[in-house]
Amino acid sequence: MIPEVVDARYVKDFIVFVRFSDGKAGTVDLQDVLQGPIFQPLRNKDIFCQFHIHSEFKTICWDNVADIAPEFLYEHLRVPEAVE
Fold it and tell me: Quick one: residue 29, left, alpha or beta (phi over 0 = left, psi -120 to 50 = alpha)?
């Protein structure tokens, strides 16, 4: 079962901080994913940063109906290394 996105925040450029229902959290850089007609408007950072968590699909989405699969976000998550 793929964990659901429970928190997401804009970081900078095309980087998003994401926290999943299993507690795993980190950042995902989506710059290279924003290809094709549905994602073209999101190449504008002012539009990109206006994402929200879809209430049914539990992943990030935008008002133009674009979304990123939670599986993709989970697999590409960059988790910060622990500091000792």
Answer: beta
pTM value?
Answer: 0.90
Measured CA to CA, the distance from residue 22 to residue 6 in angstroms comes to: 9
Total domain count for the chain? 1
Count of residues in the chain: 84
Burial group, residue 32, by CB count within 10 angstroms (0-12, 13-18, 19+):
exposed
Task: Let me know if residue 35 belongs to a domain.
Answer: yes
pLDDT tens digits, one per residue of 11-24:
999 999 999 999 99
3-state secondary structure 43-75: HCHHHHCCCEECCCCCCEECCCCCECCHHHHHH
Residue 69 lies in a domain: yes
